[in-house]
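REQUEST
  id: r-88c1
  op: predict_structure
  target: Tritium exchange subunit
  payload:
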Amino acid sequence: MLAEKSLLMIPGPTPIPPRVAAAMTRPMINHRGEAFSALLEEVTTKLKKVFRTEQPVYIFPGAGSGGWEAALVNTLNPGDAVLSVSIGDFGDRWCRVAAKLGFHVERLRFEPGQAADPDRIAEKLAEDRERRIKAVLIQHNETSTGVTNDVRAIARAVRSHGALLMVDSVSGLGALPLEMDAWDLDVVLTGAQKALMCPPGLSIIAFSERARAAAEQSTMPRFYWDLKAAESSRQKWQTPYTPAISLLYALREALQMLEEETLEGAWERHRLLGAMCRAGVQAMGLRLLA
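RESPONSE
  id: r-88c1
  status: 200
  body:
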């Protein structure tokens, strides 16, 4: 028996607005037909506004964590070194994914409750005089602690080195300010199940021109997450394999809601609710981790 209503107070999946839930009841369509192409183009165009980018945005069926693997296997080569900057559990997980894929991982870990220090990142990269480090992995917002990194400052620290900057914004995009193009970010990834107000099941990722150039040289084996295949299909507003059509309907509706509220309005709503929550916790005599 389905529960009519529940109080869901976790970072994600988040409660789904009725409009988004209703959108998923639309009849199924031919995923190789014109209606689907129009749907994909509309959703992708709306996503670019949320990412604040003119770069292509790709949607893969999967969890947000799949974006970690997509970012790595499309831009790097076997045995490349990466700098994993972790401020919590999800930063540690991305580090483990990179190691599992055979990359040489250098770790820079900060205590839970702390944000990453851009100066320490710059110092770590300055030690890499041979430019062995090809990518820096960071969380925009660390889901396990709620701590937000200063992505813009970190981007400035990384740019002088030349490594690609990859940003996990699974719990940040749509809730916190992020400017992919203005901050010169190379890869930004997210999932649909947090601030984008959709059920789990979509991994969404954008690559800069620099990252796409690296993809042309990458020799990492890949199939499901292959950017070249995704781009070839995107040129026709198609996907390399069967897409999650109902979830795309949901995402279109959620993005329409964000447009109606304005992205800046959504950022302010999350800021205000976060401040109210922290004030309430402290009023009960509890100590905040961050």
